[in-house]
Write a structure and sequence with these properties.
The chain is an alpha/beta fold. It contains 22 helices and ten strands. Helix 5 runs antiparallel to helix 8. 31% of the residues are buried. Keywords: ATP-binding, Cell inner membrane, Cell membrane, Membrane, Nucleotide-binding, Transmembrane, Transmembrane helix, Transport. Its main location: membrane. Belongs to the ABC transporter superfamily. Siderophore-Fe(3+) uptake transporter (SIUT) (TC 3.A.1.21) family. One of its GO terms (cellular component) is plasma membrane.
């Protein structure tokens, strides 16, 4: 029995009780930048220096208006004007260096996230991938991490830069006139409140948008693969699939519009108020003068308004950064969900490494269940396959044959008992030893969209051309490859669709021969092939099996007659065991399966009838 195929969903969603609180999540996000704190310190120094230089410019402007021009001091005027020009030049240089360093740091963080998620997924058990749509996984790596690019490449720098600029501007404004500063600051708490409201709203919309993008990615991956196209066209569902995709896209349109418009009017209100602030400052200075207050010089007033504009730009940017951070929290949460996935199959603290592997495989009272509900797929399996021996496992569909084979390469861990190779529990072996020990040839052959040679070298990257050719000859596929225009450089196409089923199977066998594992699992490797192709592939399998411990999961019983031991599984338990002749003599389940397997199909019967006299 194989696991149910259902869509995997994370255990916690944004807003769920299990989700980390924002402060904890922010600490984790800032932790991503910790390896690059040296570079970020340089950015901080550049930002601080840039802010100080920027603040100096309004003071030079005040001196020009209040002293140099009224008193006709051309030398001072020229010096101050040159100082303002140098300020702009220095700021530009600091800005370029700041952007270079911060972008590099941001991209390194992006790289760490991508590789971290990919590495985590590589270590996930097979059950995760049987329950998760491929497009969902791709969307997390591409869309979610891609959506965070602006945040991780510029937000940290923007935060420091704008915060420094705001502090420096406020200090300078207080130095110029504390009364005008108080007028300027009166609405700032309102702006902060508005930005927090907008941030929370966008975070929720972003979560919904990313889920919808993941759904679309899954639809595209499934329906536009070679298999999906074949199924859609042969079933006449191309128009239906297009309509379904259009509906998904329409939902995304609505979410994108909502995301871009969320809080737009409120943020626009902030812009309008800030644009009106200079007029308010001029009005306040005029009212104070008319009421008999201390006069503010023209230079001070112009310099103050200049500083105020210099304050509001980073203040608005700071508020926008806060909104972006709130939005990005939804993306970070989706990535952290994958980074926090529990890994069931791990190496022990002190893994066992075997230099020489004989290949004895033993099952000791093995139980296995795909879920926690107590429904056992395998029950009390006890078997021993001597090194170099052969075991065939047969039985009706759902009896647990494939599941038994999955336990040897540790695609799943047993829930009871042990599986041993050369007397060592597979859970105690290091992953390299286990991968070197066990090779699998399954019914569903997977080939990459690459050349024949590259597909074969996936098993042994350092293999020479001669080794590849030798493996292909043993798998009975060399002559066919040599007949192709590009030979071993021929692209196999996505999932190998440029090759027939038998050719793909022989390529998979050649790949396994190249790896040379002492234990071989054959999971119904010929069940989907016609009789003629099966014969060719069986010859390749015989060459592959020679001298190896072989466990064959068989659908067609004609392929297992010569096995040293045959086991019949029924409802996850061993019903019968013995050689072919012994089991035929018992006239039990195996004999019944053989009789059914030997019965001619309807097509075979018609063919026999057509040649009968």
């Amino acid at each position: 029995m194989k696991p149910e195929h259902s869509t995997w969903t994370p255990s916690s969603r944004p807003g769920d009780p299990g989700q980390p609180e924002p402060p904890a999540q922010l600490r984790r996000i800032f932790g991503l930048f910790r390896p690059y704190r040296g570079r970020l310190a340089i950015v901080g120094l550049l930002v601080g220096a840039s802010s100080l230089v920027t603040v100096a410019s309004p003071f030079m402007l005040r001196e020009i208006l209040d002293t140099a021009i009224p008193q006709g001091r051309t030398g001072l005027l020229s010096l101050l004007a040159l100082g303002m020009i140098l300020t702009a030049v220095v700021n530009s240089v600091f800005g370029v260096l700041q952007t270079l360093i911060s972008t590099t740091v941001g991209q390194r963080v992006m790289h760490d996230l991508r590789t971290g998620v990919y590495s985590r997924l590589q270590r996930m058990p097979l059950a995760f991938f049987t329950k998760t749509r491929t497009g969902e996984v791709q969307s997390r790596i591409a869309n979610d991490i891609g959506g965070m690019q602006a945040t991780v490449t510029s937000t940290a720098t923007s935060l420091v830069s704008n915060l420094t600029a705001v502090v420096a501007s406020v200090v300078a404004m207080l130095a110029l006139d504390w009364r005008l500063t108080a007028v300027s600051m009166v609405l700032l708490p309102v702006f902060v409140w508005i930005s927090r409201r907008v941030g929370r709203e966008r975070k929720k919309i972003t979560t919904d948008r990313q889920r919808q993008m993941a759904t679309m990615a899954a639809t595209v991956t499934e329906s536009l693969s070679v298999s999906g196209i074949l199924l859609g066209r042969t079933m006449g569902r191309a128009d239906s699939l297009t309509k379904s995709f259009a509906d998904e896209s329409e939902r995304l349109v609505g979410l994108e519009v909502r995301s871009n418009m969320a809080g737009r009017w409120r943020m626009s209100t902030i812009g309008i108020v800030m644009a009106a602030m200079p007029a308010l400052i001029y009005w306040a200075a005029g009212i104070a003068l008319g009421a008999g207050g201390t006069a503010v010089s023209i230079g001070t007033l112009v310099a103050f308004v200049s500083l105020q504009q210099g304050l509001f730009r980073p203040a608005v940017s700071l508020l926008s950064t806060g909104v972006d951070m709130q939005t990005s929290l939804a993306l970070f949460q989706r990535i952290f969900e994958y980074l926090d996935l529990p890994i069931d199959i791990t190496e022990p603290e002190r893994p066992v490494k075997l230099d020489t592997i004989r290949g004895e495989v033993r099952f000791e009272d093995v139980d296995f269940s795909y879920d926690d509900k107590g429904r056992r797929t395998l029950r009390e399996i006890g078997l021993t396959v001597p090194a170099g021996g052969s075991l065939a496992v047969v039985g009706p569909t759902g009896s647990g044959k494939s599941t038994l084979s999955y336990l040897v390469p540790r695609l799943y861990d047993v829930t009871g008992g042990r599986v041993l190779i050369d007397g060592v529990d597979v859970r105690d072996l290091d992953f390299d030893t286990l991968a070197r020990a066990v090779g699998v040839v399954s019914q569903e052959t997977y080939l990459f969209h690459a050349s024949v040679a590259e597909n074969l070298r996936f098993a042994k990257p350092e293999a020479t051309d001669e080794e590849i050719e030798t493996a292909a000859r043993a798998a009975q596929i060399h002559d066919h490859i040599a007949s192709l225009p590009d030979g071993y450089g021929t692209l196999v196409g996505e999932r190998g669709y440029r090759f027939s089923g038998g050719e793909k199977q022989r390529l998979a066998i050649a790949r396994t021969i190249l790896r040379d594992p002492p234990v071989l699992i054959l999971d119904e490797a010929t069940s989907a092939l016609d009789t003629r192709t099966e014969h060719a592939v069986q010859q390749a399998i015989d060459a592959l099996s020679e001298g190896r411990t072989t466990i064959t999961i068989a659908h067609r019983l004609s392929t297992v007659r010569d096995a040293d031991q045959i086991v019949v599984l029924d409802a996850g338990a061993i019903a019968e065991r013995g050689t072919h002749d012994e089991l035929i003599e018992q006239d039990g389940r195996y004999a019944a399966l053989v009789r059914r397997d030997s019965r001619p199909t309807h097509q075979q019967a018609e063919a026999l009838a057509s040649v009968s006299p």
